[in-house]
Amino acid sequence: MAFEIRTTGDALAVYHTETPAIAGPLERLGTPGGDLDIARTRYWIDIGARTAAAADARLRAEAPEVFTALESAEAPDFAEYEADDFADAEQGEPGRKTRAGEPPAGLERLLRYHRVDYDTFAPHEARFFEGLRDLLALHGVVSADEQLGPDSFGEAVEAFQSKKGLSTDGLPGRDTLWAMQRDWAADRELGTVRVPADKWGDAYDRFTLREDVAELYEGLYADIQRRGGQITSAGSFRSLSATVSKGRSKTSIHYAGVALDLAPYSGLARIREGDPYIVERDPAGRGWRVWCRSGAATEVQIGPQTWKGKLCDGPETTCGAFDLSEIFRQHGFADIGPRRGYEKTYSCLEWWHFQCEAVLVPFVSQFGAELLSLDRYDEAFLKKTPAWAYHRSVFKSRNRGWH
Ligand SMILES: [Zn+2]
């Protein structure tokens, strides 16, 4: 059985990974071994439990099904993770590195190529193999229901490479992936759709997303409205002629209509009662947690960040609010953490940025393929834009990749 544990504020929820809309950055549970105990440790940190026993008691009460599955799997070694994870969680340093686990045989070369450790890759492993399989199936190299894994993908990739006259190293790197998905992307012809946001100051009340992303956004927006919250907007779709500045990535997925920005001053900049969001460092140390104020939500105590010419601690705040970051995650949208220099440059904070990772495949999706997927762009046009220099960049890769 495949499921995920997610926490919303203080509550616990379990999701089935078969529902692609909620496939996100959290770890899968149910596979004995590496990613199982990491997931369990993260869960433990997420709910603020200080001991494994406390976490287990809560898990047993709130998700007995998961608890039973964990018990029947290999016993995780909590001691191994405790020191590292808590040290980072307490510092709350966004963008922390995870401790490298041992990758299954067959994956070492791929991980080396992408310059990521297995702990970084593991949460995406199932989606990576499915996404790779789908592309290979499109080229008739494997069947659409073939299960690819660490032992088998190299051979399938090699078959594709030899069919296309590429050098046969069995590694789905930038050039091989591009050969696999260029035509597929050009044929997608995805449109863009205007979607609603809430009026706040001079922020937008509508913005534009790619049609498949807009569909997920509609569900997200309805959910947030139901909870008495709001979505402010600083826009989403970005013109390919927009200038690249410090807080603007050259490989921004905004160019493909896959990301949205909340209004950057609707949270963190100051902490006022009327403002929609309060931002704190993610207790698991991976970026930000954005709280959305709502009269309908339970009161929570928040230790927020604020801005006084630089990032600093704000006054402890108690108010009705729900964990907006978590709701975004549940609908397939992920945050990205701050960019370098964020302590002193507001535009690098990126607490407002959410991208729809449910429509992307880690270590497969390429920046140029996402641009080419839009009906408004063709390759001849894109080749003339500065963004095209990054068209082979692979999603989540640290080897000239994009995040
Ligand atoms: Zn953004």
List keywords for this structure.
403 residues; alpha+beta; Muramoyl-pentapeptide Carboxypeptidase, domain 2; 3 domains; 4-stranded antiparallel beta sheet; 3-stranded antiparallel beta sheet; 13 helices; 13 strands; globular; binds zinc ion
Q: Could you estimate the helical fraction of the residues in percent?
A: 25-40%
Mean pLDDT over the full residue set: 80
Q: Oligomeric state of the chains?
A: single chain
Strand order of the largest sheet: 6-7-11-8
Which stretches are low in confidence, meaning pLDDT under 50 for 5 or more residues running? 7-39, 73-99
> SSE order, as H and E?
EEHHHHHHHHHEEHEEEEEEEHEEHH
User: What name is given to the CATH topology of the largest domain?
Assistant: Muramoyl-pentapeptide Carboxypeptidase, domain 2
Q: Radius of gyration in whole Å, from Cα? A: 21 Å
Give the names of the bound compounds: zinc ion
Number of structural units classed as domains: 3
Taken as a percent bin, the fraction of beta residues is: 5-15%
Structural class: alpha+beta
CATH class of the largest domain: Alpha Beta
Distance between the termini: 30 Å
- Provide the CATH architecture of the largest domain: 2-Layer Sandwich
Helix count equals 13
Tally of DSSP β-strands: 13
Major β-sheet, in short?
4 strands, antiparallel
The coarse silhouette is: globular
Detail the topology: elements first, then pairings.
Blueprint: E1 3-8, E2 11-16, H1 34-46, H2 52-62, H3 64-72, H4 78-91, H5 108-114, H6 118-121, H7 125-138, H8 153-164, H9 174-188, E3 192-196, E4 206-210, H10 211-226, E5 259-261, E6 277-281, E7 288-293, E8 299-302, E9 305-307, E10 311-313, E11 317-323, H11 324-330, E12 333-335, E13 353-356, H12 367-372, H13 379-382
Antiparallel strand pairs: 1-2, 3-4, 5-13, 6-7, 7-11, 8-11, 9-10, 12-13
Bound molecules: zinc ion.
